Amino acid sequence: MEQGWGFSRKFEAKARLVLVLFFLSVGFSLLRIIDLQVTKESEVAERIEKSFDRIIPIKVPLYRGSIKDTNGRELALSVPTLSIYAHPDTSRLNNRGRLIEGLSKLTGLPERLIKKKVSSGTKKPVKILSRIDRRLKEEIRKLIRETGNTRYLGIQEEYTRLYPNGTIASNTVGFVGVDGKGLEGMEYRLNEYLGGGYSKALIYMNGGLGKIYLHPLKGMLGEEKDVYLTLDIGVQNILEKLRDDIVRKWRPKKVSILLLDLSQGHILGIATYPYFDPNNFQKYSPDKLRNFAVTDAFEPGSIMKPFFVAWALEKGYITTNFWVNTGKGRVKVYDRYVRDTKRLGTIILRDVLVHSSNIGTIEVAKHLKKEDVEELLESFHMHKRFGIFPGEANPQIPDFNYPANILYSSIGQGIAMNTLNIAVAFGGLATGRVLKPHIVKNVVSSEGEIVYEAETEAWRERVLSEKTLRWLRRALMKVVEKGTGKKARSRYFTIAGKTGTSQKFDVSQGRYSRDKVVTYFAGFFPATDPRFVAVIVVDEPRGKKLYGGEVSAPYFRKLAEQVAFYYGLKPDKLKK
């Protein structure tokens, strides 16, 4: 038994040695083959390069992840396309007439356009056509061959960014530049997730145009992810139609409309004017490419009044039975007079908001100290930007060490913020909870894995007591039913809100303009159980009666009704 066992162990040792030597031999052979292959490929590439007198690099856009709305409808996607490059000296092209006619028939482009491209001579290969359906590749290759232009024309496969909805949500979605990376909007903000970019193709030339070789750059492939925004195209269409109505009637300089969901903080729609078509963004001036709902800060005017009134109540400085004598309708605040639009006499606190009294609000604001106002702005997140959009404007906050700035801020003068800041803050007036807003719902990898998902998060869980909240809600409903916001009144749904009108400061004259204003309506609905908050801002409308109650309020009613019905809400108000 011992001898048998000893023989087996010796045999195993020899067998292992043979196997090790065998695998080492195979490994060295494979490494030698790979080394020879790499060396051979390198030598071949070197010989190819030496056989051409010019090597010209070009950028080729790669695949990029899609941007979709909350329901998966595509807002931006990459489609496979072709580009055709021609020899710098396009006079060498053979059978030009037949070539131009054939390309026109295949692509649907006018012959005159192709002729113009073909006739443009440069020192480098010229891209005569781009964004061609890749399914036409073989037919185009056949046309090039049959017209005798294989030496002078080359086809390059690439990806083209397409925006199937054209101008819809363009200022939010943004666009991609020639290098395949986002330049504006969420295309820019989400470059890290969407991937894309470009690869390098080399055009080898020796008198005629040779083969185009594609050399992918490392780290540029397989990293793209799809992004789902919180936007809903159905809602977006509602907002944009209302925007167009405003533009037709009031011919303003700018418009921004923003709708926010109060349960999750999701931004459901943003409509702006001016807007652009991201498929042809080069045709537009830079000022039309911005998202004005976040990039521009305006003085909010009377929109600020309910915040100061609510805060004075919350701090216990006043009660709901607070009365104000507005006198002759004007009061001097340090070096200048502040006026009401009409004489209101002695009014109770609720009517300060209902009739949007500047004098009444200033009397309330006199009870607030510097620390109170700073706490107010921070609690409602009106003190800084959110950082979820590129180019967000920071709120412009005055120095509250000067008491005059507290009083002027209470009526929305000397303080400025963007539409998103106002919407989020007004949501706090609706529910007492200030939510962090989201524009990105989730991010999904190419394998279908969710790598990011927005979570509902409150900036402040409770900014106002239930008692203050109930009183304020009734007061803001009264603004719509009986006050300056009557034109926002709906037959179907309860709406609570506030009008605002701010004169624009004329820097050249050092004073507020008499004819350039910004009008607002901010509100929430249904007021009895708030689901949504929206803000409509109209910059420099033209016409008569340029007030928030006349310009912005009527469109808020339409917005509230259409959005509520879109989401299937039942009317909470009897028809009258």
Distance between the termini: 108 Å
What's the CATH first level of the largest domain?
Answer: Alpha Beta
* Largest sheet, strands/sense/barrel: 7 strands, mixed
Q: Into which percentage range does the β-strand content fall?
A: 25-35%
The overall pLDDT average reads 88
User: Which structural class is indicated by helix and strand composition?
Assistant: alpha+beta
And the CATH topology of the largest domain? Beta-lactamase
Please work out how many helical segments DSSP would assign: 18
The shape, in one word, is elongated
Find the count of extended strands (DSSP E, 2+ residues): 23
CATH superfamily caption of the largest domain = DD-peptidase/beta-lactamase superfamily
Low-confidence stretches: 1-9, 215-220
Alpha-carbon Rg, integer: 33 Å
Please give the CATH architecture of the largest domain.
3-Layer(aba) Sandwich
The helix fraction, in percent, is 25-40%
What is the oligomer described by this structure? single chain
How many domains comprise the coordinates? 2
